Automatic annotation (TrEMBL):
<protein>
    <submittedName>
        <fullName>MET7A protein</fullName>
    </submittedName>
</protein>
<dbReference type="GO" id="GO:0008757">
    <property type="term" value="F:S-adenosylmethionine-dependent methyltransferase activity"/>
</dbReference>
<feature type="domain" description="Methyltransferase type 11">
    <location>
        <begin position="77"/>
        <end position="174"/>
    </location>
</feature>
<feature type="transmembrane region" description="Helical">
    <location>
        <begin position="7"/>
        <end position="29"/>
    </location>
</feature>
<keyword id="KW-0812">Transmembrane</keyword>
<dbReference type="InterPro" id="IPR013216">
    <property type="entry name" value="Methyltransf_11"/>
</dbReference>
<keyword id="KW-0472">Membrane</keyword>
<keyword id="KW-1133">Transmembrane helix</keyword>
<dbReference type="Pfam" id="PF08241">
    <property type="entry name" value="Methyltransf_11"/>
</dbReference>
<dbReference type="InterPro" id="IPR029063">
    <property type="entry name" value="SAM-dependent_MTases_sf"/>
</dbReference>
<dbReference type="InterPro" id="IPR052356">
    <property type="entry name" value="Thiol_S-MT"/>
</dbReference>
Length: 246
């Protein structure tokens, strides 16, 4: 429930960001954000986040090879690949299919593909997390999703698609920022920033309690860790990471 002080501060922030709201109203902001601003922000803020989360991701992806298919190969689908910052964590010989809703990351993507030639890149699909119809059911050993579920329209639909494309015994790996403790100042500021942040960061929602969605999805086994990635000046804190087995 947004309190009156949250609403007042939201209005002040909207006033400061009024050119963005105006461009959004005119339908000009979204294309600019998708093509220019968001790839720029992801390259820059993303680079800091990648450095801070590197140890956590190494720990998270350590057991990826355990989910190789019967053929001995690991077929991996990454949802919201962006510039490909996760490629470095995937085991050698892994067959990677990339998907993203935004096709404007070519520069950083090709840079990361060159850096990570230990992988086989199968294909790149422009697709939303909620609609992966181009990926056959049961065709993947692992699905990876990092900092993506904050901005999908429907988390439950995205998780249904994840379970559809995974083979039985396959695993879904996630690393996401979530809502802070409701009684905390951090949560107060997440509520204040929410509408303007969502506009600037291509639909990113600050207050999702994604661990609840994971628990409601039909995983046969689920491991979730609540962790902190030290980004004190950013409202994208705390985080959850872990994996669920189909």
């Amino acid at each position: 429930e947004a309190t009156s002080s949250v609403l007042l501060l939201r209005a002040c922030l909207a006033l400061l960001a009024w050119p963005i709201y105006l461009l959004s109203f005119l339908g000009l902001w979204e294309p600019f954000c998708r093509k220019v601003l968001f790839p720029f922000l992801l390259d820059n803020i993303g680079a800091v986040h990648n450095r801070k989360s590197k140890k956590h991701k190494q720990e998270l992806f350590r057991n990826l090879p355990d989910f190789r298919g019967p053929s001995g190969e690991l077929r991996l689908l990454e949802i919201g690949t962006g510039g490909g910052s996760n490629f470095q964590f995937y085991p050698a010989g892994c067959r990677v299919t990339c998907t993203d809703i935004n096709s404007n990351f070519q520069e950083s993507l090709s840079k990361n593909m060159k850096k990570n030639q230990h992988l086989h890149y199968e294909q790149f699909l422009v697709a939303t997390a909620e609609d992966l119809r181009q990926v056959p059911s049961g065709s993947m050993d692992a699905v990876v999703c990092t900092l993506v579920l904050c901005s999908v329209h429907s988390v439950s639909s995205a998780l249904r698609e994840v379970l559809r494309v995974l083979r039985p015994g396959g695993a879904f790996y996630f690393f996401e920022h979530v809502a802070a403790e409701h009684s905390s100042w951090r949560y107060f500021w997440q509520q204040v920033y929410y509408p303007t942040w969502k506009l600037v960061f291509a639909g990113c929602c600050l207050t999702r309690e994604l661990w609840k969605n994971m628990e409601e999805a039909k995983f046969s086994e689920l491991k979730i860790q609540h962790i902190s990635v030290a980004m004190p000046w950013m409202p994208i804190e705390p985080h959850i990471m872990g994996y669920g087995v189909k």
